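User: I'm writing a tutorial on reading structure tokens. Could you give me a worked example: one chain, its sequence, then its tokens, then a sentence or two explaining what the tokens reveal?
Assistant: Sure. Here is the example chain.
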Amino acid sequence: MKKVELLAPARNIKAIKAALKYADSIYFGVKKLNMRMRSENFELRDLNKTVDFCHKNEIKVYLTTNILVYDKELSLLREVIERSKGAGVDAIIVHDFAAIEIAKEIDIPFHVSTQCNVSNSLAARFYEKLGAERIILARELSLEKIKEIKRNLIKTETERCVHP
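And here are its predicted structure tokens:
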């Protein structure tokens, strides 16, 4: 049986250090491209240093770009994804099809955000055909529905958000 990967959100380096004991990976966003714009976020200039710190501590890094992207933000989105690949980010968490397209062009793995509300096998297979490495399933799904979706995927991993 495959080991469960425990992910933790991080809004700063202090949160990453706290997660080191428990998490296998962390996810965070950078200013302007993070759904949690009002909370503390990482600066793009700190990406290399942050990824290096995590990888030295055997923690995977996923960068969120799970916001609505408008035309005026496409160049920033491309820059963030390109710099993420250069920094060694393990995957990009996407919401917008533009982010998927850019991730595919740049050849960086992408995970489909829970914001996409994937709640059935047809939608999951759609994202699998696009090349998603992982799909973060809709939060409303029961364990039985998750199992059904998983049975219908060939190679794409699934993820489930769990809140205390």
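What the tokens reveal: The chain is about 35% helix and 15% strand. The domain at 1-93 is CATH 3.20.20.70 (TIM Barrel).
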